[in-house]
Amino acid sequence: MNHPVLTASPAVLPDWASQAINLADPRIGARGLYASDEFFAPLARMLKPEAAIFVPGKYDENGKWMDGWETRRKRHHGHDWSIIRLARPGRIAGFDIDTSHFTGNYAPAISIEATHCADDSLQALEQAVWQEILPSCALGGNQHHLLQISNDGVWSHLRLRIYPDGGIARLRVYGQPDTASALQAVAEPIDLVAMENGGRPITWNDAHFGHPSNLLLPGRGSNMGEGWETRRRREPGHDWCILALGVPGIIERIEVDTAHFKGNFADRCSLQAATALSSMPAALIAESQFWPVLLPETPLSMDAIHTFADSVAKLGPVSHVRLNIHPDGGISRLRLFGQVAR
What we know:
With 342 residues, the chain is mainly beta. It has four helices and 24 strands.
């Protein structure tokens, strides 16, 4: 008898995490570099963007297949460790250390150190100066651990120490890329809202089938699940989300991609934009109702890239946009190309 695959429940994120991006997301460049041991499960699995799963009855040549990073049982003094490279150097607000499905085999404790290093080689990283940003703390099995830190450093690599051994299903590193100074030197138009450039969702009215952060990922979505999709609206109105640009800029061209959305794409979209007066979500919701129109309400079609230039209003430098979809549905990607404000 085949047992159903179990999927981990999502974490309920506090504001410091929900208004940040995951700097350990491999889709924007993060990578597991080194580990003291990967006997039961490789380090790369710990960074997967999908929720951790458990497959009853699934084994490989080393034992039970687990969806995360898991080391063998340590039979001598010491502890295991791993090093990951963040997608972009950035400031870190905190972590989600997820032990979902790890019950009798989770790591009992963890600490995290950080460094800024231009070289991924083990020799360079061993010689780098590391700072502990998360002191040793206890972990429990089969649960999310949302741990906020207070540190204003800009870091490129993390070293996880687990005491003494065991498994972690997922690591999320919530923060913000330190891209502003680098983008200021770029002369050509860039995607001002791209996640790798520091763009991030701030608040939204609905994300039942897909999170607004998917709008900002690189490339085209590989399926319908890699977009922002709301529930079917059964009342008047429309759905919306508010996004912060990675750096204030002048938007000149817009792309709206409905890849893989066919019977459920947003029928129409519009955008508003402004330099926000507040960074608080509640204030932004109220304020954004009166922002100038960047793109008037425009029809969309299924599974297509829509490009707008002539209809984009010349609003000057802006820091935030409000994407409205009428009345509901899904969009895979949003691109806002323009010049960084000097």
